[in-house]
Design a protein that fits this description.
mainly beta, secreted, 162 residues
Amino acid sequence: MINVLLNHLILVTTSCVADQIINVGCESNGNKIKPAFHASMVRHPYTFSDPNEILRFEHVWTNIGDGYHSDTGVFIVPRDGLYQIMGTLWSTSGKSCSTTLYKNDSRLNYGYAGTEHAQSNTVHALVILKKNDRIYFKNRGSTSYQCHGNYHSEFSGWFVHE
């Protein structure tokens, strides 16, 4: 009987550890994974081809919970909670970088870096999010805007509290 209980305990513990690696939200010792991501814009200059283009930050430094998708530029929230979202966007010489931070299809905040080289703007949002909400930066409506890539412009977010 004790062997059966021990085998069950080991199986449950092992399954939870594996589940933490594969999925978000498995409880182990009362703790859940705390999603976080940080990505940088590589393409330089980052010239917009569409007035409604979602910015892609191609180089992913951190992606705990696998919520950030560099191919689309969208953070898909893996777990309900309070999140801090931040983006720093830089301009290039003669071009402004004007963007909007979105939650799903609703504006959260604007960002604007002027036309002088290396002007920057940092956008913050402390927001309650639900699983599968989408967070992203979008071009603010003109193909004349251009952002400084080369790892200067960045996008990040992290879980703060349940």
